[in-house]
User: Fold these one by one.
Assistant:
Number 1:
Amino acid sequence: MEATQKRMKTAVDAMIDEIDRKYLRDVQKKMFVCSSKCCDDKSLSREDVESCVDRCNTTMKGAQMTLEKELGELQVHLRSSILLDMRIVKV
């Protein structure tokens, strides 16, 4: 069972790394560039700059929330499968 768990963890880690490289890094870069531009206008108040930065972070936060949700659902499905397999083995 340990070998199976290790293979599953390796596969999930590889999937997350691929999502990071293909999607999240671009989103994160845009977030940083946008946030940097918020600081360019010296006439803005501190609150306005914070609001601007928060708006820049919206897409990244959404992407992270989606990834966490999907990984949580994957974990639920895996647990269900494991429990079902354990019941089948006992029969």
Note: The helical segments are 2-38, 46-90.
Number 2:
Amino acid sequence: LTHATPFREGLAEQADVMVVRELCGGAFFAQPRGIEPIKGGGFRAFDTNLYTTPEIERIARVAFALARRRRGRVTSIDKANVMQSYVLWRQVVENIGRSEYPDVELELLYADNAAYQLMQQPAHFDVILGDNLFGDLFSDLAGTITGSLGMLPSASLPGLTRTADAGAAAIYEPVHGSAPDLTDLGMANPIGAILSVAMMFEFSFHQPAVARAIEQAVDRTVQHGTLTPDLGGQATTEQVTEQVLTHLAQAD
């Protein structure tokens, strides 16, 4: 898929990035927030980027546990140089890494520098940890590595250790939106949805072998050149899906 990315040849070939985003707190939900009039005319708008220690600890543990399964590096992104909420974020992430995951490398980057580094050397990154705001931005930014957001799966997890517990639900879906403009056109890329199923088998059903088989079927489909228009191909949604299912049926 190097032809579909904006990166120069060879730069993104070995890239394998997991973005861990905190979904329940931060600037998207914290109070107070609002728009109110000011004296002399006009308005002022404000939001609150609030995080508590337990919220940060919870998502940090997810990131470190994932990194331990992968290549052993967490890159935590923040703006601790200008915002107090990120000062706490950085302190808590450092404490969790030092006390509970000393075997996992922790890299601390300001978000603007992290964005630059991700574009310069995407293969350097393993697990990127961000709050709700930066996690939202970086999960889309990571789409440039594959050439299309249609390739990216996602999982909303209560925590890696609780996902398979009774009553601990998880949501699996592609990173991209619903794209209603593509309805009935057969142009939508199904790979993000298919890889989301692979994540479900890994994290909810604890069947990593099935997850790997699905991922390998997707790899073979891409290598075969069966691609939707967003990746420069001419295949339909149904044709890509059928190709993946064919390769999956041939799996060992």
Note: Residues 148-252 form one domain.
